[in-house]
Amino acid sequence: xxxxxxxxxxxxxxxxxxxxxxxxxxxxxxxxxxxxxxxxxxxxxxxxxxxxxxxxxxxxxxxxxxxxxxxxxxxxxxxxxxxxxxxxxxxxxxxxxxxxxxxxxxxxxxxxxxxxxxxxxxxxxxxxxxxxxxxxxxxxxxxxxxxxxxxxxxxxxxxxxxxxxxxxxxxxxxxxxxxxxxxxxxxxxxxxxxxxxxxxxxxxxxxxxxxxxxxxxxxxxxxxxxxxxxxxxxxxxxxxxxxxxxxxxxxxxxxxxxxxxxxxxxxxxxxxxxxxxxxxxxxxxxxxxxxxxxxxxxxxxxxxxxxxxxxxxxxxxxxxxxxxxxxxxxxxxxxxxxxxxxxxxxxxxxxxxxxxxxxxxxxxxxxxxxxxxxxxxxxxxxxxxxxxxxxxxxxxxxxxxxxxxxxxxxxxxxxxxxxxxxxxxxxxxxxxxxxxxxxxxxxxxxxxxxxx
Length: 452
Prior knowledge:
Layout: H1 2-9, H2 14-56, H3 70-75, H4 79-110, H5 116-124, H6 131-141, H7 150-163, E1 172-173, E2 179-181, E3 187-189, E4 198-204, H8 219-223, E5 230-237, E6 261-266, E7 269-275, E8 281-285, E9 293-296, H9 316-341, H10 345-353, H11 358-369, H12 371-386, H13 390-395, H14 401-404, H15 407-415, H16 422-451
Parallel strand pairs: 4-5
Antiparallel strand pairs: 1-4, 2-3, 3-9, 5-8, 6-7, 6-9
Helix pairs in contact: 2-16, 4-9, 4-12, 4-15, 5-9, 10-11, 12-16, 15-16
């Protein structure tokens, strides 16, 4: 009995150990065969380009002469590269923070909406649009012409609703017709007038089709005479449709200019103000005896408000970031919403039973519990914005391309977009890689930590 137990509990036979080793080697070989295609593809598409780019960065533009670190030195002396680096920092600081915040807020609010799935689908839909198509869409949306750009159309509409717009932005007075233009764009009578006078103020530069629909002929109004204590006149379009007529004379088919603001000025002060009628007539009553100047204020001729120059040098980077937010907000919301669905509901209910309001629950329970998910989303977006290229290249017009450039676009412009200096472009690529690596390493560690 003792001998039998000793034999059973003793060391395994040599044949059994060799068999297990062969099985392990065979398993490793099979695993390597399965992984080998992916490793070859990874080496060809990732490792080789990285090594080639690092090596190419030490050569000149033609790639024939070794220049050492000259490309890296030149990179930080080039103003365009410094602008690209500054814009990249703005992107990294602003875009991921805004996206993570918007995603968190929307993920929390969507839980309280009846049609949550449809709302998520609607916000996630821009992810299906390519960056090229999105860039074209926002290039049109940001167009400065209100007739083309939807954003400026809305801005102009709101502006005009509260402040109005000038009546006749293209109108002007003929030379030698009794009106003098001031430095503020206004027109005033060249000679002084007094109560009892009747004026005919002719303007040109207004197309007949641009006249208000209620505009009426001005000849009858011009024929009226002023009383002893009033100053009367007419503002009209000194142009006869179809030709004919006489300059400086109100002809039968010449139209008055309604809604034109007119002021009576004495000693540099406006003493009376009125607006022309549909036939262009105006009158001031109750004026004291003396000399006056009749003025058409510059507000009548101010150019229309054209909106905001979204793609100008000052706003082009925030405008492109806005387009990026439109595309990626749904992504952040869905990921954070997935993390939100795994939160322990008993902790939230316990907080409500203890009297905590929704803001306190959100700030003290929801956000701390979602911190790992928020970190992953933020770091993933940081990696993504460092590589942004399509939106910047498509949305920014040529004259402001340098003001909006980031490292990815600068690398392409230097290498292929006219610079033809692939040595300096490779150095920019290496710089971009070095900036991305820390975020990638952090993200990989976060994933490994979550798996444990």
